[in-house]
Amino acid sequence: MSHYVSGLVVREGGGPATVEELRLPEIGPGQVRVRVRAAGVCHSDLSMINGTLRPPHPLVLGHEASGEVVEVGEHVTRAAVGDHVVLNWQPPCRNCWFCDHGQPWLCSTSSGVAALENGITLDDAPVHVTLGLGAFAEQVVAPENAVIAVPRELDFEVAALLGCSVLTGSGAVRNTADVQPGESVLVIGLGGVGLSVVAAARAAGAGQVIAVDVSEAKKGLAEAAGATDFVVSSDALSKDIRVRTEGRGADHAIECVGRASTIRAAWRATRRGGQVTVVGMGAADDMVQIAALDIFSSARTLRASVYGQADPDIAVPALARDVLDGTLSLDHLITDRIELADVPAAFERMARGEGARSVVRL
Ligand SMILES: [Zn+2]
Ligand SMILES: [Zn+2]
């Protein structure tokens, strides 16, 4: 039996995102059908429509979500009807070289796939779904390894954020940068991921957490997340950071924008021997220039953090426990609660640098 659900679709590149009726396929072996309860508006969704990424169309947007399992296919072992789950947009296969070598976040079956077809149709033609999910929809069909069960007490809106921004931000701090107590951490770009980085850096015992954004309006959010300093981004950023770090520069810079200019700024604001962690997903033609001599003499490390460099099957339940026992507060992250049709307005707020996360309630 097929099911008809509403979903947010972009029919062609550069076109508007509109709520359309989608037909879900009958689920197959190893698949689950999930009633989506909350879905966050992530910067990667904006990147799907603003030209940064070039996904195929038509495309159902959305990938940061939580919900309730309403049907399971044959041979499904990790989920049961009624489970509350977080959706995982990069489920590891557990068979490839990377999965076998403890790096499931680099799993070769899912890396770099912006959008897949999974049997969902629009006007009887196949539609693509963002990151294998297309979670701005009332229901999704996904492989069972793309759902992670979480306790029923966990709020669906908070649970949604665990699936992308919070896992990405906290993982960048804990796993990639490995921030130590007393260290100084510069965070550039204060969207959902950047604010999660701020909170995680503070929780890791960082001495100084210097939050940077182009928008002065982010100051209150940065302080609520635990920033010790807030700086409006400018050409004088590296000088400004040096003044605040005894002339050396920060021990860590975590870049959450994904632009050559901000990666350069992160590099220059970091101390000799410091670490630059790139979390933002940038464009293929935006080149970062660093002098060969600078790479040697600065002795800095530049690396990327993909999906928090975490095993989501372990990290998401752990984050859920941290939220439930009060170790991790995410209340400041959700600034707008909206409906599906309001997502385009949320993209505009995001592009203007307003607010933190908008969460669609379904
Ligand atoms: Zn995301
Ligand atoms: Zn794999």
From TrEMBL:
Transmembrane segments: none annotated. Belongs to the zinc-containing alcohol dehydrogenase family. Residues 17-360 form the Enoyl reductase (ER) domain. GO terms for molecular function: oxidoreductase activity; zinc ion binding. Pfam families: ADH_N (PF08240), ADH_zinc_N (PF00107). This is Alcohol dehydrogenase. It comes from the Bacteria. SUPFAM superfamilies: GroES-like, NAD(P)-binding Rossmann-fold domains. SMART domains: PKS_ER (SM00829). Its cofactor is Zn(2+). Coiled coil: none annotated. Keywords: Metal-binding, Oxidoreductase, Zinc.
